[in-house]
Structure formats: structure tokens, C-alpha cells
Amino acid sequence: MDRSRQIIPFQASAITANNDFEVSKSMNIVGRLPNRIFTLVPSTTVAILNSLPDPPADCALVFLCRKFYTSFSMYLEESSLFTTKDDSASLRVHCCRVYTTDHRLHATDAVPRQLCWLRLPRVLELRGSDAGSWFVITSRGLYSWGANSGQSLGTGARDIWVAPARVHLPGHGLEVLDVVPYDRATFINTNDGWFGCGAELVDLLGPDAVTAPQHLPNPRDYTRFHVGQGMIFAWTPDQLLAAGLNNNGTCGVGSNAVKVTPLTPVDLPPAVAGGVDRVVIASWATFFLAGRRCFVTGDNEYGQLGIRERRAVVPRELPFPVDDVACHQGLTIFCTDAGLRGCGVNTHGQLIPHAALTPADPRVWEVHVPTLVETPFPPTAIAVYWTALFIRDSDGMWHGRGKSGVVPGVPSSGWGQVEWDDVQALGPATAEVEGQGRGQT
Question: H/E/C letters for each residue in the chain?
Fold first, then answer.
């Protein structure tokens, strides 16, 4: 063994696999280490993996599983880390095993935030939703656990939080290829097409959708899905389909019905129908982005769609190119090649400062025509909250304008520097701005 290479000192917590999750003791490892570390306890490997602040590229971790075969070598930086949206727990996949800090999975009263081995078959893929629902594709089938308020785990459990369990798919010889989880719906792609489960899919698939995954109609046709605010959008190679809640025409299928079922083609021009890149859903307004063309439908009470009509049940195309869009409760920002264009609520001057308007100007309250938003620099990203607008500069610092005090740093007028953690806590809609040469100065 070559001892000439400098290995950085570090500390690691040794976690045993006794009773799956019991935390054993802590140990300090200081000084030089061998180039390869062997252990019969996978959690020790991950404790080392999780502790190195700057791991050497040539230090490989190899461990022996309980069946005493050597798992494949893996460099430290090749492990995958997942964190729940509320940062309540994290999961790490390493050498086909899953480790988690979620104390609800501990068999004993273990120390919170310690990485513990979740005993499952050989892990192939891990997927998670913003709500904290987790799906693992393993060598022996599909498993799920976590948040279950939308009954989307596919195990038939009714509790709001569920321990790991096998997901049973109807049929024989099914191979799970991918899982797309949302808060209240999950889509499972197999070699026999797509299945779905969850409370959001009951109208589409029947009441059994909360008990076990059900085959979608025409299951081999779909390429991807998007779910939000009670709506389901499904892509096929040549069209976009919609189902679910249709308040003020948000599904865009040309209907005033409160609900749309089954999956129905969105009323877009034929040349666009198969080329929709993204669907943005916000506050009973829906935006369809196809290249740089943007179509809008739904509620337009505050002018957030950027059109004259009070609502649109058939998607309407905006007259300017759009790179991205962010909308939150009646306030919309379009990212364009000319800069940021905004429309919707302006009660706190988040779009147009009130000092630039007379009290009788209707734009003090609402801006119905997308208007260029003046910014002190070309922004690289935006975050939209209904009472404030936030922009990021080229150095990564955030600035806000709108309701004073909505987060610390927003002044009574003009722009003020704010902390991203404060902005993120509001739950804003976000978008990246393509290029840094745009925007008003």
C-alpha cells in the first residue's frame, strides 16, 4: 500500500446494522487511511462517505454485504443524495442500498439525523415527490413508503405516513421501468405500459386507484405526465391530453364543465399540440409553452393571463415570444428576450412602482397588459409571490420589491437585498432567466 499520498483527516460515526437501525457508537479516524476500505457493515461505509468534506478521488469504498459477496467499487462522489422538500429527512443511495435520516423508520429510539440502513432488496432507482413519498425500484419489485395523505403509495394503506411496503402490480411478469410520483398521484411505467394510483386519479381510473395501481386507458401511448391543482396532463407523441378540475377552463379543452374526464385533447393548434414543452399551473391559470410560443387559459380576474378577456376556456396565444413563466396567485412574470414582462396584481407596486402612477390609474391595482418590469440589473432568475417580486443578480444575491416586510429586507419603496431562505419559505413560483444580457437597467 502506498502511504505517500496525503489523506485528509476526518471524523465518522460508526452505525451498526444491529436491528437494522440502532446507532452504536462514534469513533474518530484521524490521519492516513488505506486506499480501499472493506467492511461487513454497510452503514459504516456510508458514515465515512457522509463525513469526508473533500474526499480524495482515488479512495474507493468497497463493502461486503451479509451474503458475503463483494459489491461493486464506488468512488465517493458517485453516491446520490436526496432531501425532502421540508428538509425533515435525507436519503442516500450507495452501492445499491438506501440509507436515511428519517427517524420514523428507526426500529428503536435512534438519534435523529443519523444515517441508517433501510433494509430492502438491491436498489436500482429511487424516486420521490415534494410531499415526501418515496418509491424504490429494486431487483425484486417496487417498494414505497413515506407521506400518504393522497393515498398515492399504491399499497392500499390509508395512514398519512406509511412504512416501507411492496407495491403489487396487477398481472404477471411486469418489469417496472420508471416511477413518476406527485403529491396525490403516482404514475408507474412498466413493460406493459403505464399504471396509476392515488386520490387524484379516482375520477379517471375508478375507486380502486387508492388501493392498488390501475392500468391507464391506452397505457402504451403516453410519454410523460404533469399533475397540479386537481388537473392531470398527459403527453403522447402527437398531442397533449387533460383531465380533472376545469375551473374557468383551466384544462384548455374548450369546455365549461367543472370536471373533465376521460383524458381529452387540449384545444391547441395542430402544429403545436405535439410540441408542448411545459405546462405551468398556477391559481386557476394554465400556461402552455411550446418552444417560445406561449398559450394561456383559465381565470383572468386580475389580468394574470395577459389577455383582455375575463377568462379563456380555449388556449389563447400571447403576441410575444416567451422563454419561461412564473405565476403566483394573480401575479405573472414572463421571461422574454426584451426583459421581464409582468401582469396581474400590482397592489404593492411589485410590477410598476406606485410613485410612477397617478392614484386614478387602474394599474395601481391591476396590470392587464404585459408590461416591461424595470430592474436595476439583468436578472438571472426570478421568484414570484403575489405581494412581491424577487430577482437574482449575477453574484447569486437576491433582491425584492413589493409589500414592505413580506420578508426582511424588502423596503417600502424600491428594491432591497433579501435572503433566499426567507424568500423560499414563502413558497414562490420560480423561473430561470435565459442569458444575462436581458432586462432593464
Answer: CCCCCCCCCEEEEEECCCCCCCEEEEEEECCCCCCEECCCCHHHHHHHHHHCCCCCCCCEECCECCCCCECCCEEHHHCEEEECCCCCCEEEEECCEEEECCHHHCCCCCCCCCCEEECCCCEEEEEECCCCEEEEEECCEEEEEEECCCCCCCCCCCCCEEEEEEECCCCCCCCEEEEEECCCCEEEEECCEEEEECHHHHHHHCHHHHCCCEECCCCCCCCEEEEECCEEEEECCCCEEEEEECHHHCCCCCCCCCEEEEEEECCCCHHHHCCCCEEEEECCEEEEEECCEEEEEEECCCCCCCCCCCEEEEEEECCCCCCEEEEECCEEEEEECCEEEEEEECCCCCCCCHHHCCCCCHHHCEEEEEEECCCCCCCCEEEEECCEEEEECCCCCEEEEECCCCCCCCCCCCCEEECHHHHHHCCCEEEECCCCCCCCC
